[in-house]
Amino acid sequence: KRAAEMAGYALDEVLSLRNTGPNDEDVGATREMCAREHEEAVQSNSFWLERIRHAAYSARVPGRVEDKLLEWERLRQQALEELSISSVRQTLRDRLCDASNNYTVITLQPLPLAGACGNMIAAIEEATLRCVAPTLINGRFQ
């Protein structure tokens, strides 16, 4: 029952986003968060390794690796600059056009006493091995 209630809340939120879109505060916060995450990411070697690797094998943007990196940065900055309430609203309307009829609800069920069951299974397996495995005496199986 609770899962159906939560699914209803989630669907209401998706429909609200589709119909009214975000407000100025949401868009501003998203733009700021993206900029901050990018500033932090460029400080790590793994970011650059992944970018260079992707550029080396990508055929979407022609040219050398350096050209691709520069183009991707230009496109990233352009996307952040163009991020607006109207652009997000239009994207949500386009992508969520049939959201009220076309969705899947997945409910995760917790395993009861998962830790205790795991310990119990391990104890049973150990006891079974002791019963079934031959005994080693003086380096020989008996």
Profile the largest sheet. 2 strands, antiparallel
**Could you tell me the mean pLDDT?**
81
Q: What order do the helices and strands follow? A: HHHHHHEE
**Which secondary-structure class do the elements indicate?**
mainly alpha
Number of separate helices: 6
Oligomer: single chain
Which segments are poorly predicted (pLDDT under 50) over 5 or more consecutive residues? 132-139
Approximately how much helix is present in the residues?
55-70%
Q: Radius of gyration, rounded?
A: 27 Å
DSSP strand content: under 5%
Quick one: how many beta strands?
A: 2
Give the overall shape, derived from the CA principal axes.
extended
Termini separation = 58 Å
The strands making up the biggest β-sheet line up spatially as: 1-2
